[in-house]
Each structure stands twice: as C-alpha cells, then as structure tokens.
Design the sequence.
DNA sequence: GTCTATACGGTGATAGAC
DNA sequence: GTCTATCACCGTATAGAC
C-alpha cells in the first residue's frame, strides 16, 4: 500500500477510536495525518465512507493480530484470555480512556445508516472472533462450541471495554476478565 | 415535567438510539417530536448538550425499570437474566436493529469529549447495574460479589447487544444469555 | 499527484417580534 | 411561550490549474 494512503488510514483509525465516525471530519484527517490536502479524493474517490471502510478493515486485521499474539503467550485459554484482558485494561488507562478499539463506536453509529460500513464492521469482528476461536480449538474445544464461546468472549471484551471507557477505570474490564476466566475453567473441567 | 419537554425527551431518546449523538441534529429533534420549534431553547437553555443529558438520564431510569420488572418475572437470577435477554433479543429484531438502548453509542461518543454527558452516562449505567445487583442480593448473593457480578452481567448485555445490532441478528445476545445463565448456575451451586 | 478555491447544505445558537 | 429570521461556522464534495 502507498505510504501516504497508509498514513491517512493510521491516523483516521486513531481519530475514529477517540471520536467515532460522525465527529471526525475530513479536515481533521488531513491535518492530523500531515497528508497532502489535495490528495484525499485521489486515494479515496468515494470520500469519507471509503476512508472509513478501509480504515475499519485495516484496524480489524490489526486487532485480530493483537489478539492472536496476546493469546499465544500462555497455553491455557482461560489464563491467556485473562492475561490479554489485563494488558488491554492497562493500555486503556494509559491512553486516558481514549483507546479501546476504533470499531465499537463506529459499528454502533453505522449499524443501520451505512450498509458499506456495517458490512466491514461485521468482517472486522469476524476476524477478531476467529482469533479467539482458533485458540479454543487448540485447547481441545469442539468446533461448534468454540465458535459460540468465541462470540461470547468477544461480547464480554466489548461490553467491559465500553464500561471501562465510560467509567474512566480499567476495573470493569479486569473484573470481567476474572469472571470469564472462572467460567472457562469450569468448562475445561467438564470436558 | 412539562408535556412539551417530555415529548422532546422521548423523541430524542429514540433518535439517539438509532443514530447516536453527533448524527442527531436539533432540527430533526423538533421535526420528529412535533414540538414548537421556538421553544427548544426555552426548555433547554444550555442547548443540545442539556437535551442530551436530560434524555440520557431519563432513558437510564426507564431502562433500569425495565430490567427490574423483567427480572421480577422469575425468582431464580440465572433464569430471570436469561428470560430478560431473550425478550430484548426479540425486541431488537422487531426494531430492525435500531433499538438496543440509547446509552451505548452516546456513551462511547462522549466518553472523553463531554464531561457533562459522560457523567450522566455513568449514572445511567449505575442505575441499571443496581437493578441487577438488587436481584442478586435477593437471591442470597453476598453484597460485594453481587456488585461485581452485576457489573459483569451488564457488560455481557452491552457487548452482546452491540454484536446483535451489528450482525443484524438476535443470536449473539441469545447465545450470550445461555453462557451467562450457565455461569450463574455454577455460582449458585457453590454457595 | 497535489494544490487552491469554491459550491452548497446543514449545524448549533441568538435576537427580537408577538 | 412560541415564532421567524438570521448568524457565523463547519461539513463533504467538486472543479480546474499546475
């Protein structure tokens, strides 16, 4: 990918994370990314919606990677998920609660207002869910259970990250991680 | 509360639920609510932010009520939570995924950009969490566990409602409800 | 590929008549 | 209490020079 284009996407990702889609203007994107002002519509002929779509897909891929590498630190799934949640909680606090993933806010803003952005959000979440699912299968979970459980884990992460950002504290995420770990352990025993 | 003011708040609540805060304009609010156009700043001297704040608090109270009455249908907490989730899943589908609570989107949009709205979101979530917590205490859960567990339940609801809205299917919420019920049952046994 | 200038609609907010 | 008129500003998008 072109260097300028990548720079636009990277900076847009950060803006969407902080402000969401509707609050982020094109002027702000070119200002923050330092990209040539006249080249925006050259790289993204469809305008803002295309910038959003490409940014969200790119972000989803990076998030899935982060989940994958985070989970690979420990073999046991319950422990690995707990560790990952703790590291995210620290990162959210360090960012002054402006981090937490660019997807959630935009996904809600566009769930019914832009089909293009909605579809790309679905794909991004699917990538993240797959990362959890893969680790579950490695841990010996049966395939269909792994899919459902991965969706549940994703929901817990998203919900507790939301509460952490709103309450300006990493604790909701940390407590959710503890409950999630306990639940997964109870499933591992039964197998 | 005044009739006109209430009508503005009710309609704003629906708009925030569908579109979020930044996508909702004052013109749209007066159009949709049928309220006298000139009276907006009479009832809400601080403008849009005040409309948002009062709407979110009002919505939070109503959501907490709904949780309370929903949970009171069944005695057992695990069963009650499951039943509530199922009824929300149906409601979300019936709304074409435009429902799911006005808080989540606005809470994320304003988490770091408006202190006033952030504080009112926190209060709204606290009301909802209290509704879960109260039921847990009634079920014999120890106080501090009840608080933490209520926060976890709230996170699971928020996260899985998000996924349901994005994926245009009530299933993420339904599956999360099943996992949540199983986890709660495992805690009940231990007590 | 990148620039400047600009079109055009919509935004939140205010003033002053009634 | 409610209306209309109007403000200054910002949004996305486009045109045309270079």
Sequence:
């Amino acid at each position: 990918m072109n260097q300028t284009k990548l720079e636009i996407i990277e900076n847009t990702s950060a803006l969407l994370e902080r402000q969401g889609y509707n609050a982020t203007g094109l002027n702000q994107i070119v200002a923050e990314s330092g990209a040539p002002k006249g080249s925006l519509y050259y790289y993204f002929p469809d305008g803002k919606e295309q910038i959003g779509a490409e940014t969200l897909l790119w972000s989803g891929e990076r998030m899935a990677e982060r989940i994958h590498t985070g989970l690979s630190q420990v073999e046991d799934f319950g422990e690995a998920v707990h560790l990952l949640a703790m590291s995210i909680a620290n990162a959210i606090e360090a960012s002054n609660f402006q981090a937490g993933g660019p997807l959630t806010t935009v996904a809600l803003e566009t769930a019914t207002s832009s089909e293009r952005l909605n579809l790309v959000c679905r794909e991004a979440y699917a990538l993240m869910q797959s990362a959890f699912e893969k680790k579950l299968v490695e841990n010996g979970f049966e395939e269909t259970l792994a899919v459902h459980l991965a969706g549940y884990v994703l929901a817990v992460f998203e919900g507790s990250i939301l509460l952490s950002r709103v309450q300006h504290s990493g604790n909701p995420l940390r407590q959710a991680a503890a409950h999630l770990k306990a639940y997964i352990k109870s499933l591992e025993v039964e197998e």
User: Anything to note?
Assistant: The domain at 49-190 of chain B is CATH 1.10.357.10 (Tetracycline Repressor; domain 2).
